[in-house]
Amino acid sequence: MATQRLFFAISLPDDMQQQLVRWRADTFPAEAGTPVVAANLHLTLAFLGEVAPETSQRLQTLASRIVQPGFDLDLDDAGHWPRPGVVWLGCQRAPRGLLQLASLLRAQAARHGCYQSPQPFHPHITLLRQAIQPVALPPRGFHWRFRVSTFSLFASDYARGRTRYRALASWPLTSQDPHALLSAP
Ligand code: 2AM
Fold this sequence. Notes:
By secondary structure, this protein is of the alpha+beta class. It has one domain: Cyclic phosphodiesterase (Cyclic Phosphodiesterase, Chain: A, Alpha-Beta Complex), CATH 3.90.1140.10. Helix content is 26%, strand content 36%. The chain is built from 4 helices and 10 strands; from the N terminus they run βαββαβββαββββα. A 4-stranded antiparallel β-sheet has the order 3-1-9-10. Strands 2-7-6-5 form a 4-stranded antiparallel β-sheet, with no helix packed on it. The longest helix has 16 residues, at 96-111. The protein is globular, with a radius of gyration of 17 Å. The chain starts with a strand and ends with a helix. The structure holds adenosine-2'-monophosphate. Adenosine-2'-monophosphate is lined by residues 7, 44, 47, 86, 117, 126, 156.
């Protein structure tokens, strides 16, 4: 079977995707960049690149064994990376649970041959792409909070000029070992 372009990520609740799309339209002029469609708004935990089916399967097994509680994510920061042309939404203080989850997934990915950038992990949701000109960022004061209680493995499909992200599997974030629950008498 062919390789797939994969990444682990946190998806946003539908209502938050809609709120962010409205806020983005009010905040950035049309010429600032190309908006990411609502359904594609997500926060990447670990980018895997092109992955063979066996490696994908192994990483999914490892992901299913992760035992850690959910956490609240506060989206209260925005920035612009001119070189990749990305305008993003992020958090002033990343929750420890988020950093722990990303670090574990990235370490497992690296051990299975998926290149991991040496750049420190900067959690973000890409709002605009092709944003290569200077962009006026909104003043601090915006804030959304949501509870993260699952994470997913996504495949990135490109067809007819469009990128679509497809969740292949999702796992709960819970402090109880799901295997222990299943095997309890
Ligand atoms: P971006 O939004 O900052 O571009 C699917 O492409 C997801 O994986 C996106 O969130 C994207 O981040 C991220 N991604 C794509 N290529 C990547 C790379 N080479 N290194 C790290 N993350 C990457």
